[in-house]
Amino acid sequence: MTDNAATAIDNPRSTVVRRRKGVNWEKWGWVYMRASGVLLVVLIFGHLFVNLFAGEGVTQLDFGFVAGKWASSFWQWYDFLLLWFALVHGSNGIRTIINDYSTPPTGTGIRWLLTPHGIMKTALVVSTVVLLTLGTLVIFTFDPCPAGSPADLLPSFCSVAR
Ligand code: HEM
């Protein structure tokens, strides 16, 4: 034990025991973290390059820039992949951390749910599903010039388009 034991974090020791039969989800989660990590390097640096470096650089970022990008199905699918790979990667990483540091309860159902472990896992699943749903809807339904909107609420390029 060290002198600063009060601030030391325990060694991670997953207390989640794997079933011996069936699909080894823990292994596939491990594989997913590596495969998505490689893809994320490409997606994240491509995103940063196009938004912050190419063209006029960081000063080009505004509502019109986003509208322009999402007018192209290429950038819609690019951002969709970035959203899903990063969010599922981040959530699966947080799931690993919860398993490493919080003991799963022995009970099931409501007895499982009303424990720190159950609350954290439930909050993780709910927030992931909400963010994936909202993010996907925003990417594919975004309309910078919605029909019937008052002209003074619309960006100037909408009048040019009509
Ligand atoms: C350049 C992009 C990225 C690469 C190459 C990458 C790679 C990795 C790898 C290989 C692991 C597994 C580490 C292990 O099992 O010990 C990991 C864990 C993790 N990643 Fe990423 N990642 C990237 C981006 C992200 C992003 C954008 C997020 C958040 C949305 C994120 C959140 C996490 C979390 C929470 C963990 C779990 C950490 C832990 O177990 O201690 N990563 N990452």
From TrEMBL:
Its main location: membrane. The keyword Transcription regulation does not apply. Keywords: Heme, Iron, Membrane, Metal-binding, Transmembrane, Transmembrane helix. Pfam families: Sdh_cyt. The keyword Metal-binding applies. The chain crosses the membrane at residues 28-54, 74-98, 119-142. This is Succinate dehydrogenase.
